[in-house]
Amino acid sequence: MSLKQLIENCKINDTKAQGELYKLYANKLFALCLKYSRNRVEAEDNLQDAFLVILKKIEQYTFKGSFEGWIKRITINTVLQRYRSEKVFDLISENQIEDDEVEIDDESLSLDYLLKIIQELPDRYRLVFNLYVLDGYSHKDIADMLNITIGTSKSNLARARQILKQHINQENNSEQSQSL
User: Fold this and answer.
1) What is the Cα Rg of the chain in Å?
2) 76 closest CA partner among 142, 170, 159
3) What residues does the RNA polymerase sigma-70 region domain cover (predicted)?
């Protein structure tokens, strides 16, 4: 069955087609949810919520543009909506922090470790970091999506980078002392 036919069948609430659509995209969307969530359990919840929204809104998809891009945007927005409702952005100072670049030695740090330390970031830092660094959104777009100012977005990104740099430096120092 073609993707177009699968989507058409989902639009008429064909549960078999909905299951196929889930199987087709669950892994990709779970990886996306994992980036924005605090842990695997929360990512699983976010994935389920996102799929409910996708299936609810699938009739709005008009086959213009990438379907995968469309469902990724819904997934990100669904996850961000959870954090907006938790008010993780209420008490944020807009003081600019010096923006550090994080140097990553690809060979010494595992992807699992990087994901773990990103997930451990406070919500407001993790969301801005992921949107800006991993998904390429501008500070203006992030400010609009999260209902914050551009300055707050920049400040949160800088703070996230500082925290990640500290974790990476600690990990590198720990590995160096173990190899002595």
Assistant:
1) 19
2) 142
3) 21-87
For residue 114, the tally of other CB atoms under 10 A from its CB is 17
CA proximity to 57, closest of 65, 44, 46, 67: 67
pTM over 0.70: yes
Q: What is the pLDDT of residue 108?
A: 57
How many C-beta atoms lie closer than 10 Å to residue 178's C-beta?
Answer: 7
* Alpha carbons 141 and 143: distance in angstroms, whole number: 5
Mapped onto helix, strand or coil, the DSSP state of residue 99 is coil
Instruction: With respect to residue 100, please indicate whether it lies within any of the assigned structural domains.
Output: no
Query: pLDDT, tens digit, for every residue of 144-176?
Result: 988 899 999 999 999 999 999 998 888 777 766
Contacts with 14 (C-beta within 8 Å, 6 or more apart), sequence order: none
Q: Which tokens is 51 given? A: 């799929």
- Does 28 map to a domain? yes
List the domain range (segments joined by +) for residue 146.
111-178
